[in-house]
Amino acid sequence: MMKLNTKTRSWTIHIDPEWVAWLVFNLPGEKVNKLTATAMAELDETLDELAADERIKAVAIRSEKQDSFIVGADINELLAIASVAEARTKSELGQRIFAKIAALEVPTVAVIHGACMGGGLELALACDYRLVSDHPKTSLAVPEVNLGILPGWGGTQRLPRLLALPVALKMMLAGKPMSGRAARRVGLADGAVTPAFLADQTRRFVDGVLTPAGVRRVRRRRRRAQRDLLSRLGRTPLGRRFILHRARKDVLNRTHGVYPAPLEIVDVVGRTLRRRLEPAHFAAEAEAFSRLAVTAISRNLVGLFLGSQRMKRRVKGGPDRPTIAAGVVGAGIMGGGIAWALARAGLRVRMKDINWPAVNQGTAAAAGMFKSLVDRRKMTKGAMNLAMHRITGTIDWRGFRPSDIVIEAVVENLKIKHQVLTEIETHVPPTTIIATNTSSLSLRALATPLQHPRRFVGLHFFNPVNRMQLVEVIAGKKTSRDTVLAAAELVRRMGKLPIVVGDCPGFLVNRILLPYLIESTWMFEEGVTTDRIDHALERFGMPMGPLRLVDEVGIDTGYKVAKELESAYGERMHVASVLGDVVDAGTLLGKKSGRGFYLYDNGTPRPNDDANALVSAARERDGVAPIEVTDADIVDRAVLIMVNEAARCLDEGVVDDPELLDMAMVMGTGFAPFRGGLLRYADERGIERVHDRLEELADRYGERFRPAGFLQKLAKRGRRFHAAR
Ligand code: NAD
Q: In whole numbers, what is the pLDDT of the chain averaged over residues?
């Protein structure tokens, strides 16, 4: 193979004897390929060289990195964009360079193995053809929407022209990755082959598309991918209008209109989706990109993304020998989920409960989670069966001795947990890590009967385990560093994000979230309707209103946690007595019983009159007067009380970094991501203002709002939680 004398460092051209040019991307000094400004400029030059060489018959673009094609543009460069004009220039430049690929007169093929994201996929879309490997590491996505922007290098133009409109919209609006095989199915890829044959198959594919019959074959295959009704509908003007209208409605339902990027995507596609690709269409894309790239929303989302990358790198260094066997004690809602996550990560799992029906329920819950992966084609049936074989159940302690770690997830009761922890200690060697999944008890309180507290750690999974990425790893005063590192490493192996936090009741996330939930029930007791409370906070950007969330968690479960925190933190977490009444009513347990603050009998949940009826009695008993509130009052009472508790957590060192706290609240509670996190929100609103508003709320509603000392200090000194970006 001949190497053409390219001057750039990122791109090289190798020409094979049949005059197929292989354009190879290998960004120097990086593990993955990113389309940095330099790499783009170098691509620009290299494409000119290719275009000038008339001997070349075809161009195949591939990556030199292991298991990775191109992960996208450089996100740090995105954050550095200072003006609308600069953003437009960046978009136009990318469009112009990719247009050079599209304009090459010979067939062009993107050869994709590994991650192909954002700008990487837009580059591939500018090629005539795409071949993918069917390896699990191959995934294709345009995730820009998650960063508050849209694909600005031609993606909004080429994707809906290549794929059925609903598929293209879904890719851009959800930003989710697609496997190589799925890409082949929807027509995004023209072939999917095992990685070892990718080079050979590319050569064969090129030979094919150099003939008119071969080109026809590819076209036919692409058309076949669009034969369903919705795809066909997308080809008529009326059908297009219908699909776009529906997409817009879905976005509004999902986001309450607070995210501009998905709406811009629908809008740009709607305005530009004609047969021919015209410069004005690309200009519309660049315009929309430039508007979005400089919004605070985009900056906040990009900030969170970079934060999560840093978080992944934060606690590194695992145990000397890998964790292979685990025990789970308590096969309830959490135990079943934890067993699933452990088995999925390849561990052998021994799960214990007090009777067989409970064990079976936990095993069935794990099986259900695997099945949902199979249904979504994220796992094969064979892999599921193998994984399920790794979980075995028991009602005694047999089989626990070889465990590298035992996680207890029994009922939230200090006495029972003490007993269970003591038993665990007698059935495993002193080297086995013992973890607790408690939500509200402190490690200090739990550790008292333990002989070897250095190997005792908190592993707080969130519910549902298969959907929640975050796991709090709690380092108690006596927990050894090795134990914390091993626990964090295990969490990472489960594909989740560990955040190490200090020991206190409720740890970080629940300690901050509970005041929000408690405050909402106070407002309910004061006569504000469930609907008003929840809608105000959904419009603020929470994924669901607080009372819906309490229903979701289970009112009895939430009440128990709230009471624990009340006994730990006193007056500022005093629980509204209506919550106790709802629990005492026995039938209103939330979604699981079909009735709570809402009724879940059919379709959309609607407010439950039975819950409302309990309010007046509670009001009388507590001497609470009905109140008039504005939506802003509702939001401030619920959100600023969290800011106040978060300030205390920082002050006490539960976490030392506001960025971690923000990440944890976004990932653990769904706190409005576009606001960049709880503390970022407070910073942007102005600490002094937040402080003054809290004082005002304290005068009106009670001392629980009085600004924490740390917040007072920040306000006095004109400081923020975060360093300015
Ligand atoms: P659950 O009631 O669904 O399950 C608890 C299980 O523990 C039951 O199956 C019970 O039979 C079993 N159990 C009780 N005593 C036992 C013993 N001595 N030995 C073995 N098993 C025993 O409860 P859950 O919701 O799964 O909660 C478990 C733990 O996880 C609690 O500490 C809870 O605070 C915590 N947690 C719960 C959630 C949640 O949303 N449910 C979230 C995070 C953490």
A: 93
